[in-house]
Structure prediction request, 541 residues.
Amino acid sequence: MLLALACAASTSLFGSYRLRTYLHPFQQEEYHPARFLTWWKEKRAADRYASLGLLIAAPFGLVQPLAPTLTAALWLAYRTRQEPDPTRSGKKPLALTTRARHIWLLASLLTLPAVVALAVAPAVGAISGAVQVLLLVLHIQTLPLYLILANAVLRPLQIRQNRRYITEAHTLLTRQSPTVVGLTGSFGKTSTKYLLNHILATHAPTLATPGSVNTPLGIARVVREHLQPSHTYLLAEMGAYGPGSIAGLCQLAPPNIACITAVGDAHYERFKSLETVAQAKFEIAEATLARGGLCILNTDGIPDALWQPRVAQNPQSYRLVSTRPGVLREGDTLLSDITPTPQGLSLSLTRNGINTAIHTPLFGQVQAGNIAVAFALAAELGLKPAAIAAALRTAQPAPHRLHVQRNGPGILIDDAYNANAKGFTTALETLTLLAQAESPPRRRILVTPGLVELGTAHAATHAEVGRLAAQHADIILAIHPSRIPTFVQAARQAAQQSGAQVHTLPSLAAAKTWLAEHSLPTDTILLANDLPDRYESRWTL
Prediction:
């Protein structure tokens, strides 16, 4: 019986550690069971080593019935020591939040009946040692299902707790009544938020959701923990994870004014069509207009067929930003004279007949649209054009979004959070701009794993950006090439004309090793996108 208890203890401990390992991708998939199982299937994240060791032990039961039990106890204890700690590894480590801890603890407890039964059964003669091993292997392979079960059991409690947090945040917002600015878009919303925060902070106390925080709980937490009576403005980035998600965010933080920076293919995988994306994004406009507010649209980032009918229904409630004078009206903002330079962007903004020259240390033509939207929002909030222009002269990019870092003669362009083809193209153009501005021109190196969440547009989009990459880079380091075969193929075909070199590498870590061995101090290097752990990690367990 002592041997059975030892086997139960080692199996239970191993299962708990393995559940923590699986909890990492489960959290990154937002605790969504279907996406988590899809990840598990695509990454082939079934257990290998622990199961193999148990199967090797099974035949010993023919000689000594309890031998597999002893082997299982020792082997699983050893494998427990080898299990990685996801809270300390990965690009985005596991965050053991209250919810994550509860799921992990309950999942571990749910495994106990099966663990005890499997450990004790051979000792009482219910099953043979060999059968025990086979059932232990099955138990280990099904551990991810315990996380899904635990999440389902805790869901009612989680929903009730979430509602309490959201209600507290909404009550606090209602009581303190800051001007709420809602920002959404397939891309550009985070950069626009950072720009607007920089502008408004020179005028009045401003609170903005940090990073890419754009979910109900994320916004609620910022409001509950950081909103002060002194704050004049709250900038709330709002993400669309399905129809109705932005409408729910607008109930939590009703916008007084809002913007839509773009409607594009960054959400194809979830929404399947641009019209569905537009419906989700325009929920912010509907909520804002219902409160008598205005919505700013960057019409250059939204297909005309998706914004024109909506604006026609309520023309006075929209303000447009565009490089096309023909679509603009009184009160709208014309963006013109966009000039990328090695020092940043220069451009002109014209509103109500007043032309304002903008000079900013930001890079990339795609930023021009973000600047124009931030300018229009600030102007509607009462800031003078000259004050906005003065603030933009010291603006900084959002982290990992076309952030140019100079290290001696070398340049690193950090665009790790790039997630769309337009931004990818802009990053490539910036790579060429900065490399060729040096004397003599510097070597251009692109490091990229491609883009994600493109759905059916995945192959065609990667073929397009692959051809562009070979025109703008002298060396291309394509990460995880099996995920982006059309990118690699198109880049190699175009490289026959441009002379670019194309190398394929299994991970960002391998690309960094290549750079350490082969890059020059004067190189200009572009990191375009950085896959989350759930995409790049090999998950050989």
Remarks:
- The first helix runs from residue 2 to 28.
- The CA atoms of residues 401 and 415 lie 5 Å apart.
- The mean pLDDT is 89.
- Residues 177-392 form a domain with the UDP-N-acetylmuramoyl-L-alanine:D-glutamate ligase fold (CATH 3.40.1190.10).
